[in-house]
């Protein structure tokens, strides 16, 4: 069972990350999908997407959930029927979830790619993070920024919310593993703690609203 990592943020918030190494047949064992989700996975042309879909159901099982406990709203945001909060991510051979019993949370996994240097101006004022001379280090840093903004977007999930105009990530050092983010939209502002980790050329970032107790047991 390639559960890559579990992070207990505090007694009510947990992160689980899966490294997809199994075949689709192995991942399907013991997983019971609703007719709707079976139709979804049958329509996926990519085997890696199907494997990712199934691995997320294994992550749900770690938290005691089945596929039928999960549903999506009109904006594509996942929810749990018991009222707990959840966010889900999938990037290549990594998947992850964050589950919270008390407040909304967001998670994102991104592959570190040089392409981000060319598109950074579309999602963030690059000069705020562009003091690094090493393009590899800058790529890593901008991947954290993107993942942090994506995590915050997943929390808000509001049409019209702009990465560039409405979501801000405070500058940080890569060794910290921690920064903060602000969503300012439609006259309201909310702040969040963002933690991040790197793994095999990927970056995982997850966001938690400020005011929550943050302990972090790996």
Walk me through the structure.
The chain is an alpha+beta fold. It has a single domain (3-209), classed as Ribosomal Protein L22, Chain A. 28% of the residues lie in helices and 33% in strands. The protein contains six helices and eleven strands. The protein has helices spanning 24-28, 35-42, 47-62, 115-119, 135-156, 163-166, and strands spanning 3-10, 13-19, 70-72, 78-80, 85-91, 94-100, 105-111, 167-169, 178-185, 188-199, 202-209. The chain has a five-stranded antiparallel sheet. Strand 3 and strand 4 (78-80) form a beta hairpin. It is globular.
Low-confidence stretches: none
Mean pLDDT: 93
* Cα-based radius of gyration, to the nearest Å: 17 Å
List the secondary-structure elements in sequence, H or E: EEHHHEEEEEHHHEEEE
Terminus-to-terminus distance? 18 Å
Total domains, how many?
Answer: 1
CATH architecture: Alpha-Beta Complex
The count of β-strands is: 11
Q: Per CATH, what is the topology?
A: Ribosomal Protein L22, Chain A
Sheet with the most strands, sense and barrel status: 5 strands, antiparallel
User: Which CATH class?
Assistant: Alpha Beta
Q: Strands of the biggest beta sheet: in what spatial order?
A: 7-11-10-9-8
Q: What oligomerization state is this entry in?
A: single chain
CATH homologous superfamily name?
4'-phosphopantetheinyl transferase domain
Helix/strand/pairing class, anyone? alpha+beta
């Amino acid at each position: 069972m390639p559960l890559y990592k579990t992070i207990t943020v505090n007694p009510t918030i947990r992160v689980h990350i899966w490294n997809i190494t199994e075949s689709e047949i192995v991942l399907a064992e013991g997983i019971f999908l609703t007719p709707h989700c079976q139709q979804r996975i049958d329509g996926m042309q990519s085997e890696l997407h199907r494997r990712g879909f199934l691995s997320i159901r294994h992550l749900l099982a770690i938290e005691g959930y089945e596929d039928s406990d999960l549903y999506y709203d009109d904006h594509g945001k996942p929810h749990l029927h018991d009222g707990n909060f959840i966010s889900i991510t999938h990037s290549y051979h990594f998947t992850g979830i964050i589950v919270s019993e008390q407040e909304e949370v967001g998670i994102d996994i991104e592959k570190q790619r040089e392409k981000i240097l060319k598109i950074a101006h579309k999602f963030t004022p690059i000069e705020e993070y562009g003091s690094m001379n090493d393009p590899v280090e800058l790529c890593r840093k901008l991947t954290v920024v993107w993942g942090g903004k994506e995590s915050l977007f997943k929390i808000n999930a509001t049409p019209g919310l702009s990465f560039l105009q409405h979501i801000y990530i405070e500058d940080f050092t890569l060794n910290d593993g921690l920064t903060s983010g602000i969503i300012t939209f439609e006259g309201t502002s909310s702040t969040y703690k963002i933690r991040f980790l790197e793994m095999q050329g990927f970056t995982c970032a997850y966001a938690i609203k400020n005011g929550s107790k943050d302990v972090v047991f790996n």
